[in-house]
Structure formats: C-alpha cells, structure tokens
Amino acid sequence: MKHRARKRFGQNFLNNPGIINRMVETIAPRAEDNIVEIGPGLGALTRPLLERCGRLQAVELDRDLPAKLRAHCAGAGELLIHEGDALTFSFSKLRAGDQRLRVVGNLPYNISTPLIFHLLEDIDAIEDMHFTLQKEVVDRLAAAPHTKAYGRLSVIVQYYCQVDSLFTIPPGAFRPVPKVDSAFVRLKPRRGIERMQVSDEALFARVVTQAFSQRRKTLRNTLKGLASESQLKASAIDPGARAEQIDLAGFIRLADALAVRADTGA
C-alpha cells in the first residue's frame, strides 16, 4: 500500500515485524476485548490485533487511509472505522455496557500530550491503554519527584493511572524515520483503593498546573493567589520548595485543604 506520510498528521508508520509482534504479545488481546486503536494508519498493528480478538474499532483522521486499511485487514475480522479527530472524539460512547475499552495506538507525537489528557476525561470507560510515544514523553509520564522529567504530566497521569514504561523502540522501526527514540508504555487506570481520591479534581489539576507553570520558582511564588504560605505549611509542604520536589500525595493534600477552605468560605 503506497501512502505518503503527512507531516501535519504526525504520521510515522511502524514497519518492523519484530517490534509489532512484541507489542501484540504485550497487549495480549482476547476475543472478548473491546479494543479501540487510535491512528491505525496502514494497519501494521491493526491486522495482527484483529486476527487475535476478531473485532476492533479504530479512530482515524486521515480520510485517505480507511479504504486502504479495510483492504489490508480484509478477512482478519470485523473492523469498524470512525473517521474523525481523536482529540475531540468521545471514547466513552464506544463502551459496551460494563465492558471497558482497551485503547491502543502509535500516537502522533505532535498531539500526544493533549490526547492523553483528553482520554483521561473518559477514564471510567477505559480498562487500559498501550501507546507508542516519543521516549521523552514516556519518561515524563513515569517520572518520580526530584527529577527534571517530573512535571504536570507526571502528576496528573499518575493520579489516574499506573504508568509502566515497557520497552524502547529505535527510529528505524518507522517510516519515515523520526529523529527521536520512541517507547511503548502501558497506562492502567487506578480503581477503588488503588487511587488516592482528591475531593475536587478540577482544583487539583489547577494547583498542579499553576505549581509547574514556572519550574524554577518556589511554591510560595507560583501558587500566590491560590495558596498561602500558612496553607502550604498546614499541608506539610515547604513554601520554599519547588514543584518538582512535591510528590502526588503532597499535591492531593494541598488541593483538599484548599477545597475545604473554599467550602467553608474561610
């Protein structure tokens, strides 16, 4: 199948059979799974997944690709393609009763972060996610406090999901060849007691975003107008610390303290 990769869609197509097989084995699709692939492209991952699970849905923005994808996957199983932008697509509508979605994809690097945040909006409908991403992004997703990679993306995604960086993928596994290394990552939504609950998730996101807005400044400065020094101290957070020094539990404590203040009008 000939198709010129489009830069505006961030297209880099996987074409390494060994890497593709490793991805499929890691995902471990089952016949009963409700799998949704984002950006299936030419179907390098789509067909082997479809052969294993028998039915698969895909979301594809490039209108030139669905016909080629259907031809490539003919005879492998039932393929339903939703033509549209994954950044605005409602993934929760693909949930079938109590059966959550297993989301997979070689995500366009130019939209990977906003797309992950978009998927978090439908987190209750998702069983797990397996993505190929720029390695730098995977490093940020899995980063721990006190590291340069740790930031807003790390804190918010780790609040919702367990992050497992699985393996690195060299540039030569794609066509056209990207200028960066890639990595395969699993995001497993936390349920019940696995997830530390914050009372106001919107406020939590605001606190984290504002705290990391100026990484070199201390929290007393970045959170000015949102949290006072006394509130930081009451949450066991040093006002002289920087955002990268605060773990997930610390951000949750602070957001909960601010939510109580808002509720009481204090």
TrEMBL record:
Question: What Pfam families does the annotation carry?
Answer: RrnaAD (PF00398)
- Where does it localize? Cytoplasm
Source organism per entry reads: Alkalilimnicola ehrlichii
Function, as annotated, reads: Specifically dimethylates two adjacent adenosines (A1518 and A1519) in the loop of a conserved hairpin near the 3'-end of 16S rRNA in the 30S particle. May play a critical role in biogenesis of 30S subunits.
Instruction: Write the record's keywords in alphabetical order, separated by commas.
Output: Cytoplasm, Methyltransferase, RNA-binding, rRNA processing, S-adenosyl-L-methionine, Transferase
Task: Cite a GO CC annotation.
Answer: cytosol
Q: Which family does it belong to?
A: Belongs to the class I-like SAM-binding methyltransferase superfamily. rRNA adenine N(6)-methyltransferase family. RsmA subfamily.
Matches recorded under NCBIfam families:
ksgA
| Residue ranges of every copy of the Ribosomal RNA adenine methylase transferase N-terminal domain listed in the record | 19-191
What name appears for this protein in its UniProt entry?
A: Ribosomal RNA small subunit methyltransferase A
The molecular function GO annotations come to:
16S rRNA (adenine(1518)-N(6)/adenine(1519)-N(6))-dimethyltransferase activity; RNA binding
